[in-house]
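Dear colleague,

Following up on Tuesday's group meeting, I ran the structure prediction for the four-component complex that the binding team flagged. I've pasted the input sequences exactly as they went in, so you can double-check that nothing got truncated or mislabelled along the way. The structure tokens for the whole assembly follow below. Feel free to forward this to whoever is handling the docking comparison.

Inputs:
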Amino acid sequence: MSSTFGHAFRIHTYGESHGGAVGVIIDGCPPRIPITQEIIQTALDRRRPGQSEIVTPRKEADTAEILSGVQDNITLGTPIAISVRNTDQRPGAYDEMAAKYRPSHADYTYDAKYGIRAASGGGRSSARETIGRVAAAAIAQQILLAHFPKIEILAWVKSIQHLQANVNPETIDAATIEANIVRTGDPTMVEPMIEHIKKIRSEGNSVGGVIECVIRGCPPGLGEPIFDKLEADLAKAMLSIPATKGFEIGSGFAGTLLTGSEHNDAFVMQDGKVRTVSNRSGGIQGGISNGENIIFRVAFKPTATIMTNQQTVTSDGQNTELQGKGRHDACVLPRAVPIVEAMAILVLTDHLLRQRAIS
Amino acid sequence: MSSTFGHAFRIHTYGESHGGAVGVIIDGCPPRIPITQEIIQTALDRRRPGQSEIVTPRKEADTAEILSGVQDNITLGTPIAISVRNTDQRPGAYDEMAAKYRPSHADYTYDAKYGIRAASGGGRSSARETIGRVAAAAIAQQILLAHFPKIEILAWVKSIQHLQANVNPETIDAATIEANIVRTGDPTMVEPMIEHIKKIRSEGNSVGGVIECVIRGCPPGLGEPIFDKLEADLAKAMLSIPATKGFEIGSGFAGTLLTGSEHNDAFVMQDGKVRTVSNRSGGIQGGISNGENIIFRVAFKPTATIMTNQQTVTSDGQNTELQGKGRHDACVLPRAVPIVEAMAILVLTDHLLRQRAIS
Amino acid sequence: MSSTFGHAFRIHTYGESHGGAVGVIIDGCPPRIPITQEIIQTALDRRRPGQSEIVTPRKEADTAEILSGVQDNITLGTPIAISVRNTDQRPGAYDEMAAKYRPSHADYTYDAKYGIRAASGGGRSSARETIGRVAAAAIAQQILLAHFPKIEILAWVKSIQHLQANVNPETIDAATIEANIVRTGDPTMVEPMIEHIKKIRSEGNSVGGVIECVIRGCPPGLGEPIFDKLEADLAKAMLSIPATKGFEIGSGFAGTLLTGSEHNDAFVMQDGKVRTVSNRSGGIQGGISNGENIIFRVAFKPTATIMTNQQTVTSDGQNTELQGKGRHDACVLPRAVPIVEAMAILVLTDHLLRQRAIS
Amino acid sequence: MSSTFGHAFRIHTYGESHGGAVGVIIDGCPPRIPITQEIIQTALDRRRPGQSEIVTPRKEADTAEILSGVQDNITLGTPIAISVRNTDQRPGAYDEMAAKYRPSHADYTYDAKYGIRAASGGGRSSARETIGRVAAAAIAQQILLAHFPKIEILAWVKSIQHLQANVNPETIDAATIEANIVRTGDPTMVEPMIEHIKKIRSEGNSVGGVIECVIRGCPPGLGEPIFDKLEADLAKAMLSIPATKGFEIGSGFAGTLLTGSEHNDAFVMQDGKVRTVSNRSGGIQGGISNGENIIFRVAFKPTATIMTNQQTVTSDGQNTELQGKGRHDACVLPRAVPIVEAMAILVLTDHLLRQRAIS
């Protein structure tokens, strides 16, 4: 359903960019999981605007408040509500946008769907909506830590426009990614990427790229055979992130250039476990994890908000021009990395709890 | 949930490849929609093995029986059950497979998940499972015809391994696609593709490729803002098809190479309607259809079943070798085209009915 | 959703009384549960028409076929489809009913809802629909046996019209109930109840009554705090059975005549367990089982099908008269006992699996 | 799912009695429905403690804040979050309760389920949880007003312990009910009921009773045939209200004393509409509304909180005594009337939107 994600571990998000608050209810969280406001806040700070010189300078405090379901830093098993107030309301900056449909934004489609639209900001299509996802994932992460401590979920910037990072998903670690403001996994590409983003921004333009993600230590057996295949739920999760245009797992689109004998992952016994020699499957076979690293990539289009003149129409059907104003991210990928991780955590936690029900 | 797809228009599939039957229950179908057994059968015949010289010669009658929910070729509004008997049971051909995990199949992961596995065939991971989806989509198609006659959904083979078809999604028609056994949309590529598949098959090998799909005439306003974005549901639908490794919409992964000013789709009034000058959004903005053509691509890996020796392990943990036997598709794409269309129809119908609830 | 029941253990039923078949898909069943066709058949035979001299003489073979999800009498973890063919089609007996709305049946409301209606029999409102529920519960029962062998679920006829049985829910056993064709738990009331039903039937009339059900050995902790309270799900389950008009748990409506000090169940330690001295709560507190016996009652109205002249209207809006014809149950309660048990089993199994997910 | 209710019109509630806040997210609300904070507040005030001399004197401001989904008093179609701060925290009053299980409360079962429990108040089992339901229903009510203005939903106190009100569901109006603090529909019983409640309270005791509810002007065709029968969803909704022990519709349990010829509702044409001469069906046949008044009754047990000594056990398994302290409702029925109405409104609105999807 529209604003609900997950079956056993379910989250419900709410909030426009410029209303009273954005937030989330988490239902189905096991009891007695340790969680603090600080853990959630740390997660939120990674996706916050204004965190570095290459993201939007917009200031958002994004202070999370836990309203229910937690007592003395322990979950109660009941719904956990987390709320973040909207404080930095500058509707004036968006006045022109209220009347003109911003190209490649959701202004027109919201009007088409609802016959009404939040007067300022992007409404539900704002990146602020992802706050609820990240907060929920911070709690889900605690479940993984408590029950499946071997699981590691890491995402990084794989490319910015034509600039490709060279990263080994087997060995990349969080410190390497967090050590740079682009959140790429390749130290040699940090400077070129930063310079490119600055240059693009100085032109009032924007760029996109690809984020790669690995799930290490996932036990075999997660995912459901038919519609709720683990990769299908990951695909949906990733395509639900604003600005995404594609998803591929394992060999992905490039795998279509191989033959079967080149592509198949041979099985071999190793330390008493069934392992695969290669991993073109990307850690999932028939919709179910096989114990190998789950590796996938997500394509992000260049940010739709740009500072140059664009042809568009008004909400009452007149051709016009729009010049971007206000604050914008010339490249959303550094801030999208924690969101990709958050959605991966949510999918995995949901499937772990689902698997328990039948085990 | 595992074997359920959709919210307003819901399907539940069942069936292993070699049990008594495979089938589907469709719940939420509006009443008074005309449907015949022949319409369903025609749809099933498009996905049937043995239909041409380039697909598996395995014979499957695939005769659909409507068990409920339809009277005098009109839907009653109650659940529609459709069943297809499994008749061509040759478990002998699969004996070796029961003991050895076929590389890049789901044998191992089913065992890991359930601690048990259908002794022959691929169980639920068999392509036969898609029968229920195609049958359900044949009914959904009738809803579209009755209520939204302008909607056209067409898929075609965009590439077989390195062989690329050149197809215009604006103008391609069903006749062109169905006129060739590859189901490509580019008549000049029919012969090269057929020859390539035959050559690969003669080598006991297999190939994959990309299927492209267009939804024309979709009204603006379909799709939900957050998790049930139209592209997110399409992505999940496509990644739920066996052998898929990737999904992209509109500009997709290639769009990450553009800047924002190159990528944005300018709006313009045309015949009193809000239209976009270009369509890199792929017909969906903010998760909601904008009235332009919805265009997406799906990557299919090369078929895992090949006829050459492969290293693998037995279900009791011994290293061994497996030689493929029996019947196989050297390339699943010609038969996957109707399945891609079916899943697109199911997503669209579900969202059309969901939109009605709030309109 | 309409024809779906349960969250972790989910069933989807289909089928009209006079179409090709009725049946069920069970999704979410754990793997490696032993089940045979005979176990299902035995369960179905308890609800079958024609089983005794006080139920409808209509003959229905009701032979269940397992179409998927089971291999060598063991569940695979995949959806289990069970189908029962409709064989005794005598649409002629229902011709008059097709044109005239039977009082207190669902003929008119189906027309009002769907604008169409199954031409004969009661469509989905037929008691045949419960076949799928009973078959699914036979499998759920096997899960309980395998994992929670102390749980016992027993229902019996508590009253037929004014005839009240005196039954102790603590000690009643299945043998006592099944030893008589009324399925009452009070041997002294068997003959009076049989005679009363026969007399009522001879008058072309019908009677209802109350079925009581006990769940013994239920572990504490099942049920969800708010909307999915265990008693709320039981209430829904029971009111979903055709012909039911009421549900009460523990002290029920009579409990409204007590004061709090009379009604409260004092706690006491017993054998190291928290127990209650009395059980006016009916085994559930705050929506969650407390380990005491769960006891509830379900009211069934007198069968709507009677053999006397009744005032009614035609489907095209003319006042008319209807005389009941064909075969009917003068009292559905003996056959409803296994259906009450089945729905209780389904609710309990669902909540047991749900509880596992968070434990 | 635990804290979610509804399918097309869905609400998710959260909040313990003594955490930061209680509240609700409403998803699936149609756009362009007028709603104000005042309308919600007025609804909440009807369920508020301290509103009269016969309910708990506990003060709760219960000020509702709309955090999202509404702009300029019009719904946007996106999730509506409503929050009510918990302000009157007096955990001291509950200290003894934290260590001792209150008889017929949910203290023990929460511990049994979760292994942890909110240290004070009733956690999720507190009546404060119903704030979210009432707020959501205030919005649902606006949908009904906008689209189905003829629908009227009214509940009243039918009995307090042995004191029975005489009310005609056809003609009772809101003014009569709201004119007295008991919220009974029978002016002659107001004084006796008030006196009885006061007397019971003065004894430190409590009483329960029955609330009756009528839905007038409901169009025929609402409700789903099998599991989501309209009466089944109403039964679940009512049994999800704290302190309820029973539900009956139309003739209810008393209907089991009639014969079929006495019980059946004859059809007759009236003003061109299909009507029933009597209404023992209670407005629903086969799970679907028939256009007559929907009438049901809900049993409420006497309040579990009493001021006399009670035998109980501590959370660490010692027999002990508990003396009730603090503030309590000697009779919850006056405040439960708006909650019964709220749940009825939610069920009806959900089914109205669901019916739209297939119409």
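The domain at 4-358 of chain C is CATH 3.60.150.10 (Chorismate synthase, AroC fold).

Cheers,
M.
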